[in-house]
Structures are given as structure tokens and as C-alpha cells.
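As described in the Methods, two query proteins were run sequentially through the folding procedure within a single session, without resetting any intermediate state between them. The first query and its resulting C-alpha cells are shown here.
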Amino acid sequence: MLTVEQAWELIADAVSHGPCVRLPLGQAQGLRLAESIDSPLDSPPFDKSMMDGFAVRVADIRSGLQRLPVTAEIQAGSLPPRPLGAGETFRILTGAMIPSGCDAVVPLEWTRTCSETGSDPEEIEIGQTERIQPGLNLILRGRSMRQGTRIAGSGDRLRPASIAVLAECGIVQPLVHRRPRVAVLSTGNELVEIDQTPAPGQIRNSNAAMLCAQIESAGGEPVPLGIAPDHPERLREKISAGLECDFLCLSGGVSVGKFDLIPQVLADCQVHEVFHRVAMKPGKPCWFGIKPDSETASRCHVFGLPGNPVSSLVSFELFVRFAISRFLGGDLPRPKLVPARLTAAMTHRSDRPTWHPACLHQAEGELRVAPVAWQGSFDLSGVATGNCSLQLPAGESSWPAGAWVQVLPWESLTAF
């Protein structure tokens, strides 16, 4: 059997970056750029005020003037009426354009009105004159970024702040690696849809709901295909539909039982097996293969996940999320594990390396991890509060409280 690390290597070799598309900026959140972008403008595009106050000439203040007439007002979005002359001041609001001749903005709080109400012009008295220096409360043109400077690189993930920068620059349709379409098919005669009442011997199809949620969190677009019974023709029909997508996630039917028909049906559909079975617990039966399309040079990446819910959840986090990340433009050669400190002593015994569900959290400046109570791969409710997998070696081992261990955060390939 393959190790988990060997399975990662095979996935990294098999899954390349997906096609690139131009999307409206509002639809590109979380996607990776497929181009580098330089700023087409200076930001800010003009000198502007950092706050509400009064535009002044520092030379006036240093000459001893403290009482100045307010001869104009500049609002954000409007132009100064004229250059600022000697011995006068303009009221200016936050974000408004600085008039020519002004080299400082005195905060409103440093001034008081000293003319009678309704007098024209209004007159103010300026305090704290010793603190008024050239450049006070001014944001000069290009302070944030200059035209031609790199604002985003190819491969960068678009987050809210970077989307705001692109919006400021008028980049309305960036070139990105598009989201993969991921078909989800659950198999098994015992399954019914979640809105149905199971008959004796039946269970609801919880895996499909879970996988669709995981796919969305990984950046993919889930395409639910429903349930296929353990019958070769029905399976082949559903699987053929799923092979039209970029990925196909199958749940159940990949072990070695009489009705574990998935590997043979996939072979009948010309899906090439890359690996089957991994030395891990839970998730040992995991299957991965590729269906190439000679006409379009595209391919469908097929994962057969175990039907037991925790096995399916962990297998997705270990393998499918990694594959989707590669398709979306990620270049990590494998998922990134992070060190965390155990919150309590634990003992573990298994014939295979185990990815034990656990809960990861920050405390006192470090990551800490607590294994969840877990009875086995059937026990989905036991891991509902988990957010990571704790990596444990094969054999028998013990760790004291405070020991450092390696964990794989769920919903993340970088860091917790």
C-alpha cells in the first residue's frame, strides 16, 4: 500500500492548474490570479486631506499669524475654488483635494471660532502652532502606490483587501484560475435522500451534504448527482455524467466487498487508476484515477472515497482538497502540516498511521490541539466539533500533555 506522502506525490503529478478565465471582480473572491497586475494609476490620484480641518500655509503660522479668515470650503469630491493665498485658510473635509499653496491641514480640534455667528468671513484661532509642520495631515499623490508598480502577482489569492486594490485601479475582470466543477455521487442500496424517512435498514445520504460543503469551502463548485444503487448499469450511467466535470467524488463502493463495484465500473468507463488503498486510518480504501479527454485535452480527476462518514471526511481533507487547490493554481507539493501542543496526555495504538480527528485552537500565542472523543470511522457526531486531523504513527505510542505533534487543519492548505 502507498503511504499518504506517496499518494500526495501522485496527486501533485496528476493534477495541474485548471483553465483560466476572466471573471467579474465580485466573483473572483478566493481565486488565484493567472496574471500579474501593475497599477495603472497613482494612489491617491491627488494630494488630499487626512481629516476634517483647515488648509493653511505653514509660513503664515511661523510668521506669527494665529487668527485666519475662512474664505472657502472644500468638500470631498469637489475641486478647490482657487489656490490658497497668504493670510487665509480654507475649511477642508476628510478626503478632499488639497489646494495649491497649502502645505498643512490643521485639525478641527486645534482651532476655535473667534468671529461672531453669521459673520462673513468666519474667523478662526489656531492653537498648538508649535506642532504645525509642512506635510501635517496631508496624503500626497502616489503615497499608497505609484503607477506601474506591481500590485498583484500571478498565483496570488484574491482576498477582500486585494480585491479592493484592484477595484480602486479599475481592474473589473481579472484573469483567474476558474473554480472546478466537482460532481458528487453517493453509492449504496441503503441510502435515501436527506428529506426522506429511512425505512428499516436504510440511512440518509449525509456524505453528499458533507462533501458538497467541503467542496465549496475548498473553492470548488459542487454538482450533486444524487444516489446510485449498487448496480453496474446504474452506476455507469451516473458516473458517466460525473466524468463531464473537472472532478468526480464518489462515496462508498471502493473497498473489497461483494458490492464494492466502483473500481470495475470506473475501469469500464476508461478511467485510469493512479492508486487504490492508502496506509492510513481512517480512509484505507481511498481510490484515485484520471479520465483523459482526447478531444479537448482536459481530464476528470476521480476520487473514490470510503462510505463511512469520518473516512470520507478525512480522505477529502487529505487528498481532494489538495487536488482542488492544485487545480485552482496552488503550487504546494503537499498539504502543509502545522505543529501544535497537546492539551492532555494520550496513548495511541494502531497497525496503520492514523489521522485522528481533533480540535485546534490558539492559546497564549501558540497552537494547541485536543483529540476529540472518537469511536471509529462510523462516528460522525463524535467529530462534529473537530477542525483538524492529528497525525499519529503506526504502532503504540504515548505522549505527555504539552508534547508537540503535527496536525493538518481542515479547510486550509497553508496555516491555521
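Immediately afterward, the second query was submitted; its sequence and C-alpha cells are:
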Amino acid sequence: MESTLAILNKLSKNIIYLLFFATGAVGLIYQIVWFKYLSLFLGNTTYAQMIVLSSFLGGLAFGNYFIGKKVDNSKNPVRFYALLELAIGVYCLLYPISSDFLGNIFFATASNLNIESDNLVFIILRLVFSSALLFIPTFAMGGTLPVLSKFFVDKVSTAQKKVGWLYFLNSFGAVLGVILAGFFLIARFGLDLTIYSAAIVNIGLGLIALLMSKFVKTSKAVSESKDEITNRNNDEFITPKIVKLAIVSSGISGMAALLYEMVWVRLLINFLGSSTYAFSIMLAAFIAGIAIGSFIVSKRFVNKFNRI
């Protein structure tokens, strides 16, 4: 029989899985709300879509890279995760105020410098201000996956399964968030109340994670068995050159994916007549595909294609 400590630790991990699912939903509620806010500020839904998508994914990328490099020094990744979620929630709770404040500064600056609204400099500055407004929360969001991966992954052999499962849960939650925000919350409660509610939920989830960090076991360094080391060394076909090529290919694939997203939104507007619904449907479908792919990877279905 499992010991009481083992049962509690297993229960704690399941709760953290649920938290990551919920924060995925909240994160995409933010994204839809940001799109609506920026549509008001930029006066062009195409610009708003471009800024939200590029800033969101750019922030995730930077957060994943920089926080991922720091998390190895953390003795309690769950506490680290909780602090990230709390930071996101607090920032988004203040987002309407920050948005108005920066917007007023921008227009005052443009007025003082006599920059016309159709001037290229005016447009570029407006896009820069909008992107900067989204960078902090998306940067923190980007750090949540590597932080929790540090907590859940204790062996190289389990990395694919556990990271894939985490990504699936977060992405599946994101689909739910898109549907809720795009088709219900904003229409029913408006932008301010929607983002305030999401931020309060986010802070609550962060506090729960902070509480859970007191009960979970601290993570150990990722280890490899002798067989794993032998198998890794025998994979001579995976050279540094191939690794670099894979990274470059992934980057090009990501760029193409964002181009698809922008085109799909414009196509959907022709049928739906609403940029919000088109944007929401595109995101829901896109992220649902990511979630399904993550689930397949977590089940190691693709492993058989690694064989020569």
C-alpha cells in the first residue's frame, strides 16, 4: 500500500495539473480581452490581431527561454509557478488603468511632437506602445511551462510524456478560455469586468499554488539511467548540425503558423461578419489542434517514427 505521504504528493500533483489547466483558460481570456482593448486603441482590427498574436507568442518565447534557464536553480518550482501566476493576475487586474495611462502618454507625446495620425512614425509608435503593454504578462506566462516541467520531470525517459501532458492540459484549458471570452463573457459583462474577474481568478489560482508549494516534495535534478545514457550516446545520427537544423525548421514553421492565423481570421470575417467571433473561432481551432498534438506526443505515439 502507498504511504500517506505518497498519496498526498500524488494528490498535490493532480491539483497542480488542474491549476495549469485553469490558468490556460484564464490566459486565453486575457488574449481575447486584449484584442478588444487594442481594437479600440489602434482603430484597426488587423493591427490589433497582429499585435496580440505576435506579442503573446513573443512574450511566451522569451519567458520560456529566460525563465527556463533560471528555474534549474529553484528548489521549489511550485512556489516559483505560484509567484508567476500571482504576478500575471496582479498585472492584469491593473491592465485597464495601465492601458489608459500609457494611451494618454502616447497621445500627449504625439500631440506635442505634432505627429499626424496618418504618419508612419505615429503608427509604429502606437504598435510599439501596444506591444510593450502585453510583454510583462506574456513573459511570465511563458515561464510557467518550464517551471512546472522542472517540478514534474525527474527522469529523461519521462520528459516527453509529462511535458506533453502539461502542454495538452494548458492548451485544452486555453480552448475553453477562448470560447468563454469570445462568445459569452465579453458580450455579457463587458471588457473591464471580464478582465477583472479573470485576474481575480488568476490570483486565486496563484494563492492555491502557493499553498500547495508547502506540501509538495521539492524536485530533484533530472536523472538518466545507464541504459538511457547508452541509448543517447548510440544515437549518432543526431548530430549538432541536425539539432540546429531542427531548431531553424521549428522557427520557420512557427512563422508560417502565424501567417496562417492572420489569413484565416481575415477569411472567417467574410463569413461571420465579426472580427471578434472570427478571431475567437480561429484561436479555438488552432489551439485545439495544438492540444490534440500535445496529447498524441504525451502518449508517445510518435516514438515509432524515430526508428530508422
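The CA atoms of residues 255 and 268 lie 20 Å apart. We note this only descriptively and draw no conclusion about the first query from it.
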